Every structure is written in structure tokens, then in C-alpha cells.
Amino acid sequence: MSGFTRNQLIHGGDYNPEQWLDSPEILEQDIAFFKKAKINEVSLGIFSWAMLEPEEGKFDFGWMEDIVNRLYENGINVIMATPSGARPKWLADKYPEVLRVAPDRRRNLFGGRHNHCYSSPVYREKVGIINRKLAERFGSYPGVLGWHISNEIGGECHCDYCQDAFRGWLRERYGTIEELNRAWATTFWSHRYQSFEQIESPSPIGECDLHGLKLDWRRFVTDQTVDFVKVEVQALRDGGSALPITTNMMYFYGGLNYHKFAEVIDTASWDNYPLWHKQPEPETAAEVAVYYDIMRGICRKPFLLMESCPSSTNWQSVSKLKKPGMLLAASLQAVAHGSDSVQYFQMRQSRGANEKFHGAVIDHYGGEDTRVFREVTQVGEALEILSELTGSGVKAQAAVIYDWESRWAMEDAQGPRNKGLYYHEAVTKIHKGFRRIGLNVDMPDMEQDLEGYAVVAVPMGYMFRKGFGEKLKKYVEQGGYLILTYWSGIVDDTDLCFLGGTPHELMDVCGVRSAEIDGLYDWETNSGAAVPGNSLGMTGEYRCRNLCDLVQLRGAEEVLRYGSDFYAGQPALTAHSYGKGMAYYVCADFEEDFYNDLCRKVSEAAGVKSLWVNLPEGVELSTRQDEKAEYLFIQNFNPSAVEWDEVPEQWQQIYGEVSEKLPGFGTKVYKRAL
Ligand code: GAL
Ligand code: ZN
To answer: Model-level pTM?
Structure first.
């Protein structure tokens, strides 16, 4: 269970009634519209601090209470936010320390949002006070489902408080300055520190090339932010609320390791704004699927789609309308991947300021006879039909490792391709390869366990965090099938290169040693051609670019060989059996077709069972299940219909058009008893 649901899929989103307090008739009208669109939730208070505490210590929660009551009387629940995402002017004026200091050490003026220091004692205190009061007032209201901490937490601050906290964090991590010097390799360029007091956060006007420092700074920023969230949560608990907690996240946001938030939240939630219709829709759907699977992995249970746009998004370079049917398909994709909600930004379009042209369920016209309103209603109807699957989980046989810390370290490094390593693309291609054969995919980080997966892929696992190499070794030894790619097992936890050969700890598992890696110019390509009779049954020839790893065989079988350059004829893909399992080493950044074939072949070899291995292009298959039933989503992200008549008998269709086709942007859902 996500904890937030009351046995129904949540349908709602961000609502800002504080912008309409002078128009009570509009608020009344909104409630009537919400009911028509089968909205059963709104998220309140996200940016309401100035209206909740107009002056320091003077609280006005009456308007909020009236609205919460009116909503509840009409069957609409509330996810209540804490207001720390944006602060009132009086707070910044009286306590300038709450404002953020940029990496160049300049303090920001008041403005925007997210503009605050996570370490500032005053900010923590003021947030604590209002959170506690909110919890006292609303923390056990019948219609309140849970807490939405702040909003899209992110960014960093370089003020004196943060510097002090960073030094304390380092002292705790390293104990002595000698140990820190060793871990960061500070002898390089004579940057040795004599004491922790000398350390400064990375800055464009100071130290910005020391990778160990930068990596630890990012870890610290995550830990400090998690600590801030802890303070927020504690205040809610002190106010007597036991309701579940979430915070809304953003994609692959680079500033925070989202996995670390699992210890302070009950449910992960995220905000999804894909650029639909910019490229063929199946491409976008496949990219979004990766994010969904990452979000599901954070708390390892159903998550919430906290925001999505019902129409066009005004901050993107082009505000594209969603074509008819797209909203429904995109919304059900969330549910297919394990979301217990479909929520929008925003319920009613604001009249002024930055987001006045952002899509909304109810726009400035203010009527229900709009295309968007009708499509939102269709989503509401679908969610009502599918409500029985609320809380069901997703079981995956394949895992693709996605690790924030390794990504940070890899992206910071100089070489082997400063023009672009294409990590994200590598992750997506492998994920897509498994999805093409109808598999659910989990995306754990290096700390989560790998038990139960038939296949584990590690694309560009540059940094092997403590124990990760050992974990992979055990996984293969015990019968797991591992796909490891180039640029893996290169450095340790503090970004020090492993000595004695790479992939670290896995040379015997993979039966290869990576000897050199060639960076390719943008216009260069190479290829990998299948070695006749290889054990994996690969037959094609595939193009590769960007990075080509030259490996020395240490017992592995060659499956593909490079086609050109001075390494023509050398291995480009290898296979090696180890213990009860197999390890495949992908030497180069291959094209998508390669991964489609590789994932299929390796899954077959691993004995993975999938429901449909021959999915039509652009069709996604996903399953959710609980103890009683399994649910199968078949979604067509092509704008036009595809033939589909393959569902076996024990599946009963519970949603979607009954026909031998899958309509364009169409979804069908089936169920079978377990
Ligand atoms: C999100 C944010 C919302 C709103 C939305 C617009 O990132 O959390 O408050 O600004 O974008 O798309
Ligand atoms: Zn600070």
C-alpha cells in the first residue's frame, strides 16, 4: 500500500484556493466540477505560507479549514503540504540567513521558491512551528490522507552554517584529516589539507576540480536535505499527526540521491512532464517508463504520480497540447508501473504570475465543456474501474542498476569522453530491451539487494560502492545472469581508481580484463559482428559509437568482434560462465537493436518467462499483482491502432475497448485470479 490511499486510486492534484479567497463562488463551482470529473483528492497548502502565517507568529488557518471541510463533505480528500518550498517576505527580511548562498558565495535576495538554506537554525525553527501547528489542526482530519513535504526539494546552499555542517560531516566520515587527504588524493596539485576547518565547499572561484570533494559535497547535500526533511517530519509528529509522508521528486534530478529519502518518507511520489509529441510517442513512453521504475524502487512499493499536466506545460520551450487520448494513455502508464494515483498540476489555472498559462483541469474560461475537462473525466472513470488494484505491487524478473552516486562520480571525471558519456541513454536502452519482451523491470541502486532477479544489468557501473563487486560476484555464483558494460568497476567509493585491473572484483566472473578504452569522435562508429556459432545465438552485426573498451580475454567466449579500427577482430561482447550463473560483458556503446537482441537472448538463457515476447512496436506490457489477482496492462503508444488478439483465456478483460485491435493510444487491462 502507498499508505495514502483509502482503497481507491487517487485522482486529483495541486489546488491553490488561496489565490481565489476573494471569489467564494469560484471555489464552490470548483467543487462541483471536481465531482463531475471524478476527482477524489486535492493537494493543498504547497505554496500557502504567506496566507497561513501572514505575520510572524500570527496564524490564519480558518480559510484552509473551511475548504478542507467543504471538500470532505463532497467526498474529496486532501493531501496536505508543508509550506517550506516558498517562504513569506517577512521571514526573509527579518532573518536573511534563511536565504540561500550560491556557490560563488553571494547570498540571494528574496524571490522565487526553493530559495532557502537547509541548515539555517531559524529556517528549521520556523518551518517546525508552522508544521506542528498544521499537524495539530489537520493531522487527524478524516479527509486528510497524508503529508506532502515541501515541494520538489532541491538545490544547495554554501553559507557558513552549511560549511560548518559539511566539515562536521567530513570529520565523522573520515575521522582524521590524513584519511581524508588519502581518500581525496589531495597530494595531486599540492592541495593537501591540514585540518577540517580549512575545507570549503566546491566553488567556481575556488576548489572545483577535486573529485573526492565534489562527490562528498553532493553526498552531504543529500544527507543535509534528508536531515531537513526529518525536522519537518518530526514537527508533524510532535503536532500529533501519524499520517503517512511523501515528498515529490523530479525525474533523474542530479542534485540529490533520492534513494536516501526512503528512510524519511513512507511513499515516493514524483512529477512527470514528458515532451509528448516531440518524437514518436512510443519513444517518449519508453523513456518515461524508466523514471516510473526508478520511483517505484525508492520505497520498493507503489508510489504516487504527484503531478502531471492535463494539457500543455508552459515552462517547456514549446507548450504543446496533448493530442486526444494522450492524457489517458500517459495517466494509465503511471498506474501500470505501480502508481496508486494520477494527479495533476494544476486543478485551476492561476490568473496571474508565472504559471498563468500552464495547463489545468479548469482553465481561465472556467467551464466544464472543454476538451481537457472531458479527458480528465475519462481518466477519472478509468481509475474508478481500476480501483481494485490499488496497493498491488509490481514483480520484476529483470533489474537494471541505477545509482546516483556512481553517476555523480562518472560525470565529474575527466575522460574518457568529456563530450558525453551517454549514461542515461545506456540505461534506457537496456531497460527498453527488457521491456520489449514484456518484462517488468526494477531499478535498484548499488545498495539494494539483488535476490530474486533472473537477470541483472549494470550499465556503466563506474563506481563500485562498498560491497557492490562482491554482491555481483555472489549473484552470478549463485546462478544469476549478469550483463555488465564498459566503464564499470573503475573507482571505489571516494573515486580512487582501483589498482590491479578492472572491472574490479569481476575479472574472474566476466573472464575479461578491460585493458584500454577508446573514446570516439561524434562522427566515428565501429561495429560488432557475431562470431559464428556463439553460445548466445547472436547473429547480427551492430553499430557502436562513443566508447569502445578493448578487453583481454581471461577465459570468456567471444560473442561479437569489432569490425574496424586497429582493434578489428577483438572482442566486443563476451560471455563467461561462473559458478552457477553467467556474466556477459558489453564492450561498447551499442545501438538499440543490439540491446533488444541481447536482453532477449540473455533472458531466454536465464529461463525468464514473459507473457508475450513478440510485442508489436510501440506496445507496452506491464503487470501488477497482489495476493489475489494479477493485472495486465497492454498499452499502445502509437497514434494508430495495432492488431492485438493474443490474450489467453484465463485473463478477463476489465478495462478498455473490446476488439481485436488496440486503438491508437489505447489501453486494455486484464485480470486473472491467483
Ligand atoms: C512542478 C512544480 C509545480 C509547478 C509545475 C509546473 O515542477 O512542483 O509547483 O510549478 O512544475 O509544471
Ligand atoms: Zn546554508
So the answer is: 0.97
